[in-house]
Design goal:
Helix 7 (234-247) packs across helix 8. Helices cover 37% and strands 21% of the residues. The strands form three sheets. It has a five-stranded antiparallel beta sheet. It has helices spanning 10-21, 60-66, 78-81, 92-96, 147-184, 190-222, 234-247, 270-287, 345-355, and strands spanning 45-49, 55-58, 107-115, 119-129, 136-145, 230-232, 255-259, 266-268, 292-300, 308-315, 359-364, 370-377. By secondary structure, the protein is α+β, with helices and mostly antiparallel strands. Strand 11 and strand 12 form a beta hairpin. The longest helix is centred in the middle third of the chain and has 38 residues, at 147-184.
Length: 385
């Protein structure tokens, strides 16, 4: 009568093992399986059955996951308390037969099973024996809800769908124009060829940027985002981005830069800082209205009262971000409007800032639009201190 689960996280494994291996006796009961262990402290559901298959432990998490009160579980047969079925509708306990079968078995790996009503749960089990081939003295079952895994799977599916959608348009354009040029090169004038090649170049750039975003997300999620710290002139970096936007057609009077100094020497990854500034300024221009104001000033470094950092604030005078959306701005796929984009930029910006040991926030600006503010600590290399 057991169930399945791949190895849980180390801390949980230790706790469950302590419960499983604790000696049976008067001290063992529904609320205390082993000395110093309270099953209700475990984040996963824990169900323990004795050598006769009757439940002797049923913690709070198990009661929540199964929607069964503890009082209705203690003392009852394990297969009645957990009437599990596999995804094909077969009763799980007769299939696994933990108290019978091969005496060399020690448990069941994690798998998806169904509770009454079709509720899905991740289940694993361990068979406790006094010696390797002896009779089963306890069956320890671990239960986990599937909500977190479903969210992860849904996030991955959304990422794949977004990437496929974003790649299809530029790649279709690149394929169409190159095929046309190869087939009918002589029929086009030089100006027409230039226009098509410029379009191909722009779409290839979109594909390159999307791939770079995906690599950044992978490194941020895995904690492998590398920083190559160098002295960074943040004022010069802001000026460079503004000049690029002006060259791209924005009016120079749309930008207002305020610098309060003296600014501390900043050690950061210049490419990553450029990525943060570029994203915030492009968002302000694309989704905001009116004047885009950039303020640069010294500020206390996050979490360090004795260290100075640099704060950069980017605000606009557009409609701003609705209050109910503020908490979702830095999540994946959040879009402030329907004006294109993958919805990954601000998620990456937050990851880059936090990798530097900094913080980033969003609020409503003085002009009513969105206001993004990030603070980077000085982070001078130890050998220069």
């Amino acid at each position: 009568m057991a169930v399945g689960m791949s190895s849980p996280r180390p801390a949980r494994t230790t706790a469950v093992r302590a419960a499983a291996e604790a000696p049976a006796g008067p001290a063992a009961g529904p609320d205390s399986i082993g000395a110093g262990l309270d099953p209700d402290d475990l984040p996963d559901g824990l169900v323990v059955a004795d050598e006769c298959g009757h439940v002797i432990c049923f913690n709070t998490a198990a009661a929540r996951i199964t929607a069964t009160p503890r009082a209705d579980a203690i003392g009852r047969p394990l297969d009645a308390v957990l009437p599990l079925e596999d995804l094909k509708g077969k009763r799980w306990w007769p299939l696994t037969d933990p108290y019978g079968g091969l005496a060399t078995r020690n448990g069941q790996p994690e798998r998806n099973l169904l509770l009454p009503g079709g509720r899905e749960v991740l289940v694993s089990a361990r068979y406790v024996r006094e010696h390797p081939t002896g009779p089963v003295r306890r069956v320890v079952v671990c239960l986990r809800g599937t909500e977190a895994r479903r969210r992860t799977e849904r996030s991955h599916a959304e990422l794949i769908a977004t990437v496929a959608h974003e790649l299809r348009s530029p790649l279709t354009s690149v394929k169409g124009f190159t095929a046309t040029l190869l087939a009918k090169w002589e029929r086009f004038t030089d100006d027409q060829k230039r226009l098509m090649l410029e379009t191909v170049d722009a779409d290839a750039g979109r594909v390159t940027r999307l791939i770079a975003e995906l690599l950044d997300i992978s490194r941020i999620d895995s904690g492998r985002l590398e920083l190559r710290r160098q002295p960074v002139d943040i004022s010069a970096a802001v000026a460079r981005h503004i000049q690029a936007l002006i060259t791209g057609g924005q009016a120079a009077e749309r930008f207002l830069v305020r610098t309060r100094g003296p600014l501390p020497d900043l050690w950061a990854d210049p490419d990553k800082v450029d990525q943060v500034l570029g994203n915030l300024l492009e968002n302000a221009v694309r989704h905001g209205e009116g004047t885009v104001t950039i303020e640069i000033a010294p500020a206390p470094a996050p979490g360090a009262d004795d260290e100075t950092g640099t704060a950069v604030t980017v605000s606009d005078e557009g409609p701003g971000i609705p209050e109910e959306s503020m908490s979702r701005v830095f999540t994946r796929f959040w879009r402030g409007s329907k004006r294109g984009g993958t919805g990954l930029g601000l998620y990456i910006v937050k990851g880059i800032v936090e990798a530097h040991g900094g913080t980033i926030t969003v609020d409503r600006g003085p002009g009513g639009g969105a206001e993004f503010r990030f603070i980077l600590p000085v982070s001078m290399p130890a050998y220069l201190v």
